[in-house]
Design goal:
By secondary structure, this protein is an alpha+beta fold. The chain contains 2 helices and 8 strands, in the order αββββαββββ. It has a single domain, classed as Hotdog Thioesterase (Thiol Ester Dehydrase, Chain A).
């Protein structure tokens, strides 16, 4: 069961990561799963009119962080240790949907996969695997083995 609601995750993100500029709305948060919608603008485009790779990487990382928070609670020092992304097709200017599935939530590491879509299109535009390091004391009440 999630330890934080979507609203609590959103409020926490605003409090501890005020530098994140992407407008993120959590559409669904449940055990081991999160879906967000991100409004992108022409500032997020690269030449050729597609959403830039750095924007998609930021969305993948943000989505995974939000799922980690949802699952373990308000732990600001959980941090990315690895992000591997594959760009599958060129997304046009439209909201971006990211769906995150937790693959493993251990005592010290969380591993998930993020599938990214352009709103209105069922074909993914990118796929990422993301690993987060969890501070040692954060997982007292979540006890899966590493």
């Amino acid at each position: 069961m999630p330890k934080m609601t979507a609203g609590e995750v959103t409020d926490f993100m605003k409090k501890v990561l005020s530098q994140v500029r992407l407008p993120v709305a959590i559409e669904e948060l449940r055990d081991g799963f999160l879906r967000i919608r991100v409004g992108v603008t022409d500032r997020d485009l690269r030449p050729g009119g597609t959403i830039s790779g750095p924007t998609l990487m930021s969305i993948a990382d943000t989505a995974m962080y939000q799922l980690v928070l949802g699952m373990i609670g308000p732990v600001p020092l959980a941090l990315t240790t690895n992000l591997n992304i594959n760009f599958l097709r060129a997304p046009k200017l439209a909201d971006i949907i990211a769906e995150v599935e937790m693959l493993k939530l251990g005592k010290r590491l969380a591993v998930g996969q993020v599938t990214i879509y352009s709103a209105g299109n069922d074909d993914p535009v990118a796929h990422a695997t993301v690993t987060y390091s969890i501070p040692p004391d954060a997982m007292r009440s979540v006890a899966p083995s590493e």
